[in-house]
């Protein structure tokens, strides 16, 4: 994951808060997984033109829809979680073309909500 994307995502998520319980470890892992999907689409699937700001908004939207409180987001090592998720995603034994199509089909629609 590029440093710029990480900084944008972190700053956007840190600025978000809601009235629910603090972010749990599994929720943090879910956010890292979703971040890894977008990074994979950008780096490995030809979607390099996806705007980082729109991705950040999509992640915040995803958290809001799940009523997650991100005030303790900084207490998790999101960089490490994201890198692990990216490695896991990269290691899935499916052709890159099939993987890219499935990821795009299942996640790009989230970006439509935050334009």
Give the rounded overall mean pLDDT: 86
Give the CA-CA distance, first to last residue: 23 Å
Determine the fraction of residues in helical runs and give it as a percent range.
55-70%
- Please, how many helices? 5
Q: Uncertain regions: pLDDT < 50 for 5+ in a row? A: 16-20
Oligomer: single chain
Count of separate structural domains? 1
Strand count, sense and barrel status of the largest sheet are: none
Integer-rounded radius of gyration: 14 Å
* CATH level 3 topology: Methane Monooxygenase Hydroxylase, Chain G, domain 1
CATH-derived architecture = Up-down Bundle
Q: What string, H for helix and E for strand, traces the elements in order?
A: HHHHH
Under CATH at level 1, the class stands as Mainly Alpha
Shape: globular
Label the structural class. Answer: mainly alpha
Q: Superfamily at the CATH H level?
A: Chaperone lipoprotein PulS/OutS
Count of extended strands: 0
* Beta-strand share of residues: under 5%
Describe the structure.
This protein has helices at residues 3-14, 25-44, 52-65, 78-90, 96-112. By secondary structure, it is an all-alpha fold. The chain has one domain: Methane Monooxygenase Hydroxylase, Chain G, domain 1, CATH 1.20.58. The longest helix is centred in the N-terminal third of the chain and has 20 residues, at 25-44. The chain is globular, with a radius of gyration of 14 Å. 23% of the residues are buried.
